[in-house]
Design brief:
98 residues; alpha+beta; Ubiquitin-like (UB roll); five-stranded mixed β-sheet; 22% helix; globular
Length: 98
């Protein structure tokens, strides 16, 4: 099972209390995790990535194993610790300002 941590506003939208556990088929990638997440929680479609292009939304970041994976390919394999469920895949809402 893959563990996914969502920011508060997305947990509230999906009516979740904590992290999500997902069964993901095949290779564990950002795209595969987001596909499984949006299938299980359709209300999240379009909030994390564009529904047509599947590009990450601005001000949304992805982290795993204390690394920023936001600019990695959505088809790149994630670290083994994420694939085994030892570490979560984190979706973080970035903050901008000046």
């Amino acid at each position: 099972m893959i563990r996914v941590v969502l920011p508060t506003h997305l947990r509230r939208l999906a009516r979740l209390d904590g992290e999500v556990s997902l069964a993901v088929e095949g290779q564990i990638t950002q795209g595969a995790i987001l596909d499984a997440l949006e299938t299980r929680y359709p209300m999240l479609r379009g909030t994390i990535r564009d529904q047509i292009t599947h590009q990450r939304r601005p001000y949304v970041r992805f982290f795993a194993c204390q690394e920023d994976l936001s600019h990695e390919s959505p088809d790149a394999p994630l670290p083994d610790a994420v694939a085994s469920g030892a570490e979560p895949f984190q979706v973080v809402g970035a903050i901008a300002g000046g």
